[in-house]
Design a protein that fits this description.
By secondary structure, the protein is an alpha+beta fold. 21% of the residues lie in helices and 37% in strands. The protein contains 3 helices and 10 strands; from the N terminus they run αβββββαββαβββ. The mean pLDDT is 83.
């Protein structure tokens, strides 16, 4: 019986030593890090207005919105010289990652604005004349569709606007508005 006790004790000691030997052969390494995400930030940075012969052209500029007000807009022929109002502005990629325009939407809640307001578009490389709101939207989407703005890049453009020569008398003394919304996304989507 003594032999069995010694054998059992020897087996228990042997198993304990094997467990300790097993633990001596393990190892662990850790990989970790910190991540800072990029920022997508586009803003209007400047604007200038010119009113031709109009009584008053005013604009209000904030980071995300440019509002232009023209009093006493009237119809003109396409070749009437400077009988139009002009706004020149640019937006800048103020973020840390490249950006691109994903969609431009031009709209007005008033039918007469859609029908009779006309624009000319200039950006230094492209120019389009006699555009209604729908065609202005197409021009912005075509011109800006593949344009990538790297950090601190700007895009500058000018818009001339007037009422078309065939604007009917019932439009006199009306107020209207339009908006041009630029939607941006990161450059790789």
């Amino acid at each position: 019986m003594k032999k069995i006790k010694y054998i059992a004790l020897a087996l228990v000691l042997m198993l304990a030593l094997v467990g300790g030997a097993y633990a001596a052969w393990t190892d662990t390494i850790v990989l970790g890090g910190d991540i800072d995400t990029g920022e997508l930030s586009i803003k209007f940075e400047g604007a200038a207005g010119s009113n031709g012969i109009y009584e008053e052209l005013k604009y209000d500029l904030s980071d995300k919105k440019l509002t232009v007000n023209v009093d006493k807009l009237f119809p003109r022929e396409p070749d009437d010289g400077n009988l139009y109002a002009t706004i020149t502005t640019h937006f800048i990629n103020n973020g840390s990652i490249p950006a691109k325009v994903t969609k431009v939407t031009v709209k007005s809640p008033q039918t007469f604005i859609n029908e009779y307001l006309r624009f000319s578009y200039y950006d230094g490389q492209n120019s389009q004349k006699e555009l209604n709101l729908e065609k202005l939207e197409d021009v912005f989407n075509d011109v800006l569709g593949d344009e990538i703005l790297d950090k601190n890049d700007t895009f500058k453009f000018s818009l001339e606007f007037w009422l078309a020569a065939d604007t009917p008398d019932w439009v006199m003394d009306k107020q209207g508005s339009y908006s041009i919304e630029f939607e941006f996304g990161q450059f790789n989507f």
